[in-house]
């Protein structure tokens, strides 16, 4: 008998339908010499420390770091798991061959292999069903191309490394900081400081961005513009830091003629957008509709299970060459809902460029595209996500957008000005994405203003004016920009080519990034404010407490992710990776335990790491001659800080006891930008008090009907 194991019951039913297996039993479907059974996502997990040694149930510093000589498995304690696992185990024990039909990726492989291991069936012959779509045609094709299950041993090795490294780093760091700092601020109840190999660097990025905004002080500037023939020309020199300088030039040109010195134009071709991977889909839907990454993933998963789109958890924006013959048929089917948009395409001669088809850029799964099956009714989120996927898919085959960018140079009394205008010559793919009008603020100069025809040498009256503006701080993260930062390991990247190169070193994977954000929200380390993502006082406190910079480093986490991908490809050894994780964890506990206040020095500058020195009225960086501007006042909101408190803040970044500020007990910390900040005292109650609005809405699975139904 063959046994097929899927990740969830719905996929088992889809496969059974295609294979014409109809015998429904409790926990499986059987027929034609085959049994199809299912997990409920993860059924099996790693043992807790106390299950290796009862003494480890008590959290103590002297038991750290704890690293099992060999990891062991247990069932997850959820309703129905034990009963379903016994069904799977019985079937696997009787099986002659076991087929893995869990999600085709790292976590799906882990789910299957952990089940095999706990069932004692690792020596059974295994084969792999690799699905990128749940349509009947895709399932039939995948069964014709079953692979030896051990071809995916490297994928399993990477999955195990991810699971075990998260356990080692997260468990040891969480226990250490909870025991050491759980009662910081003299809290009556101990705070659980949850720390993770991936989640903590993401929190550190958010805290740093918030600190940059907090430190920012707007600076006034003045601009000189003039209006000639209803077109606004900007002065080509730098902004003015004093209004008098701007006014001086303004007064020189008032009443003097304005002359066109030159007109130049060039054409710019903008390529069609590439197909979606999961991260770019989540970013686009967050930007256009405000959906969280988690809600977008849930909606896309629902669409996948309804056979409307292909596999969602992909990091590729390309199709493989074997997909090319299927694309015209999909577009033909989509005419039922997008006839007007598809009509301009010549389906027999689609432009399959390297931006669309590239086998080298497809690893586990190709880009997310529609399957061609037409939905009848969708939930609101599913409709928004489906529309985005379909539009992007059609646009990828549209012609380029051709723009004419005109630059007009002008002058008055030798003072030079310039105006720019953009005219769309051929809309191409951009016709599918109508632009929303941006809100204008007073004094804004449009880059895309419509220009009349100007001739070199023409001259006439104009209306000069000056405008005061202020520099703007960095923007708070949204889920869109945070996902982009996670994908690029903390770097701010707008260029698609560079982003593609950095994918190997991203924080987390497309499949896990939404869950990382939701975990931070659930633990009340971050909060949502409309579209913005901001750190809470609990999150700030944790980042201030962490002494090891690598624990907060997006780059280090990105390097670990790159090594996991190398293990997947068989280019690196799992044992070497785990040795590195174990060594790092031992150093983490040792270095954190050996951190003591050095009373012989004041501390390091938080901006440049040079020694801090005491001045007449404040403390400052010894590198001030080299331009470091760090200064720390010895008084904060009426609280006079002692020399010892200054030392603690500069060396430990947080006072471990509360202080009275504005008649309230507060904790005082030093931000990542070197500013003093008082925050609420951390407490277990506050940790649980994340507002329900900070969490993804629990929605019943919406109706997803297709015309095939």
Written description of the protein model:
The chain has 709 residues and is an alpha+beta fold. Among the domains are: 2-145, Rossmann fold (3-Layer(aba) Sandwich), CATH 3.40.50; 220-271 and 401-470, Distorted Sandwich (Topoisomerase I, domain 3), CATH 2.70.20.10; 278-395, Topoisomerase I, domain 4; 612-692, no CATH class. The protein contains 20 helices and 29 strands. It has a seven-stranded mixed beta sheet with strand order 2-3-4-1-7-8-9, sandwiched between helices. The longest helix is centred in the N-terminal third of the chain and has 29 residues, at 153-181.
Short note summarizing the structure:
The chain is α+β, with helices and mostly antiparallel strands. The protein starts with a strand and ends with a strand.
Helix segment count?
Answer: 20
Spatial ordering of strands, largest sheet: 2-3-4-1-7-8-9
State the secondary-structure class: alpha+beta
Q: What is the share of helical residues? A: 25-40%
Features:
709 residues, alpha+beta, Rossmann fold, Topoisomerase I, domain 4, seven-stranded mixed sheet, seven-stranded antiparallel sheet, 29 strands, 35% helix, flat
